[in-house]
TrEMBL record:
Its EC number is 2.7.2.4. The lineage of its organism: Bacteria, Pseudomonadati, Planctomycetota, Planctomycetia, Gemmatales. NCBIfam families: asp_kinases, PRK06635.1-2, PRK06635.1-4. It comes from Limnoglobus roseus. This is aspartate kinase. One of its GO terms (biological process) is threonine biosynthetic process.
Length: 626
């Protein structure tokens, strides 16, 4: 007997018929001999409707009252689902997040789970009930209701599964939704997107964080941290969906497994930032303290002692970001400007760590579509580009700038973004089956026998382990002193430059690691990338030749005296404290940061080579890594 946690999303409980269908699935699992927990979202578009209702009354509703309001959606669903199960002849009990003791911090609208008390759940399961739990909600230490952020019911489901696993249960978690599983990209946008059999935790984490709305990214953090097996599957069929599992060798046989589009970000640019230690820390720690997760950060190398820093934040954080930065901008003598509507397109794949030419292929596909890249950042297993939406593609804002979950892409007209996504999907042949897929899934499923234990003493110690369960997990600091950097400045801002450059580099068999491109002034971009030090002379020659053919003004310079420092873990980008600690520790030592890359599994910075060892040691200290 295992414990099966089944999560049903909004569309899967949108009306009575669907609620009954979900109830039948839960009952079937029970009849198969399992203990069953069901986590449900609000019905259909209830959460969107509640947000709209609030905006009829206030343009700036307070976050506390919004949580009070939004949590009601899930409360309706749990009662209806429990009624449906009872109607079909099984014992069921519905419980809210506060009732079972899901304790969060007090960041209303995007609270993080601190701990989960499993005692009430265990009691209800032991007495043979199917437990129906409200997703998306908890209470803070003041007993105020909080919510976990849009799409947060996935996180409730996986977090509860993780907590019960710690309490000794053999847990499996199924995420029932309106698609057959995780696709290579959003099947609503790319018709030949393919359902994957399996994807690694890290790949899914990056995909989710880069816009693949099928899973809430924080739920994958829990799954990875607590080793919870997850399957995403269709609520309206019995077909197997997609396993989200630890990385297996076969997953690296292809460089790219999926692509994602995000169209709810704003891009801000800080010009004239003094290029000295501690400045990035000042900027990003202020944002981190305001709980704003910064996405793409591109810091230009800078000339005349001044640098340009561009970054993106989610639209709903835009105003708060501008407000937070305003005193700092004044103090630094910098200026803050905004770019128009943008879309972000990303590719993800564990195999790209070791394969050359991935960026080149992406840029070439975009160049063929005449899509101009406004910003580029890379991570260990992902590359993201920001593209400008055409004027006609300008979006009308959702009320109050709230991200609306089911907002229809067609009507939101992320025209260039969708075009880019299709081009990339086809360039990487993502509709073709993934090599070796399925091999490792079978082994993975041979899991140990159930370990059900509900002894009170075990429970107490398990609960203790769950303290701070969503705290950041930094697993390592890695220094790479074998890289060099090439910077091309004054690149004219038009499509095709990156494609031409990286085609030449890839044809020479040179592996490019980090790439950062930023707009430095009207019509001008700056591009920096790192290559192995032994490849520097060849890469620099290619870059210089290419720069000249692009524009006589444009020059490429090489710098062999750099080191790349990575902090590895899970949820590195969305846990705002990581960047703060990293930049803070480096600033305290007076170590200047020349390039920054962010992703969910790794934060990377380029620093002076001479300070590499010292910087790695101080970060190990800061993150308490032995
Ligand atoms: P739920 O309400 O069940 O949580 P969501 O709307 O949050 O459902 O997630 C399912 C939707 O995610 C799908 O309808 C699909 O359009 C979208 N989606 C985006 N990217 C992907 C992807 N890579 N694979 C599958 N679905 C995706
Ligand atoms: N009902 C919440 C939302 O719409 C949570 C969820 O569906 O996961 O965002
Ligand atoms: Mg969802």
């Amino acid at each position: 007997m295992a414990l099966v946690v089944q999560k049903f999303g909004g569309s899967s409980v949108k009306n009575a018929a669907r609620v009954l269908e979900a109830a039948r699935k839960a009952i079937r699992a029970k009849h198969d001999g399992h203990q069953v927990m069901v986590v449900v979202s609000a019905q259909g578009s209830t959460t969107d409707d509640l947000i709209a209702k609030a905006h009829e009354i206030s343009t700036t509703p307070s976050a506390r009252e919004m949580d009070m309001l939004l949590a009601t959606g899930e409360q309706i669903s749990i009662a209806l689902t429990a009624l449906a199960i009872q109607e079909l002849g099984e014992k069921a009990i519905s419980l809210t997040g506060p009732q079972i003791g899901i304790v969060t911090d007090s960041t209303h609208r995007k609270a993080r789970i601190k701990k989960i008390d499993t005692s009430r759940l265990v009691e209800a399961l032991t007495t043979g009930h199917i437990v129906v739990l409200a997703g998306f909600q908890g209470t803070d230490e003041l007993d105020d209701i909080t919510t976990l952020g849009r799409g947060g019911s996935d996180t409730t489901a996986v977090a509860v599964a993780a907590a019960l696993k710690q309490a000794g249960y053999d847990v499996q978690c199924e995420i029932f939704t309106d698609v057959d599983g995780v696709y290579t990209t959003d099947p609503r946008i790319v018709a030949d997107a393919r359902k994957m059999d399996a994807i690694s935790y890290d790949e899914m984490l990056e995909m989710a964080s880069m816009g693949a709305g099928v899973m809430h990214s924080r739920s994958i953090e829990f799954a990875k941290k607590f080793d919870v097996p997850l399957m995403v599957r269709n609520a309206q069929s019995d077909a197997l969906g997609t396993w989200i599992v630890p990385e297996a060798d076969w997953m690296t046989e292809i460089p790219v497994c999926g692509a994602a589009l995000a169209y709810d970000e704003s891009r801000l640019i800080l010009d004239g930032v003094p290029d000295r230690p501690g400045v990035s820390h000042k900027i990003f720690s202020a944002l981190a303290s305001a709980n704003i997760a910064v996405d793409m950060i591109a810091q230009s190398v800078g000339s005349g002692g001044k640098a340009t820093i561009g970054f993106t934040v989610i639209n709903s954080d835009r105003e708060k970001t501008i407000k937070t930065l305003s005193p700092i901008v004044t103090e630094l003598g910098a200026t803050l400007r905004e770019m128009g509507k943008v879309s972000k397109v990303s590719i993800v794949g564990a195999g790209m760590r070791t394969v050359s030419g991935v960026a080149e292929k992406m840029f070439r596909a975009l160049s063929a579509e005449k899509i101009n890249l406004k910003m580029i950042t890379t991570g260990d297993i992902k590359i993201s580009v920001l593209i400008e939406e055409d004027e006609v593609a300008e979006d009308t804002k959702d009320p109050g700038g709230e991200p609306i979950k089911k907002a229809h892409l067609e009507s939101r007209k992320a025209v260039r973004g969708r075009q880019a996504l299709r081009a990339i999907h086809s360039a990487f042949g993502l509709s073709q089956p993934r090599k070796g897929a399925g091999k490792a899934v079978g082994d993975f499923l041979k899991r140990p026998a159930p370990l059900v234990s509900t002894a009170p003493s075990d429970r107490a110690s398990a609960v203790a382990k769950l303290e701070g369960m969503e705290d950041i997990l930094v697993s390592g600091v890695h220094l790479n002193s074998d890289q060099s950097r090439i910077t091309i400045s004054d690149l004219p801002d038009r499509p095709g430059n990156c494609a031409a450059l990286f085609t030449a580099i890839a044809e020479a068999g040179i592996l490019v690691d980090m790439i950062v491109q930023n707009m430095t002034g009207p019509g001008k971009a700056e591009l920096s990338f790192t290559v192995p030090r032994e490849s520097l002379p060849r890469a620099l020659k290619l870059a210089q030749d290419m720069a000249k053919t692009i524009d006589p003004q444009c020059a490429a310079v090489g710098d062999a005296e750099i080191a790349v420092l990575y902090v590895l873990g899970v949820g590195m980008r969305s846990h705002t404290g990581v960047a703060k600690t990293m930049f803070g520790a480096l600033a305290d030592r007076g170590i200047n940061i020349a390039m920054i890359n962010t992703s969910e599994v790794c934060l990377g910075v380029v620093i002076d080579k001479a300070r590499g060892e010292e910087a790695a040691a101080c970060l190990k200290d800061a993150f308490e890594i032995g």
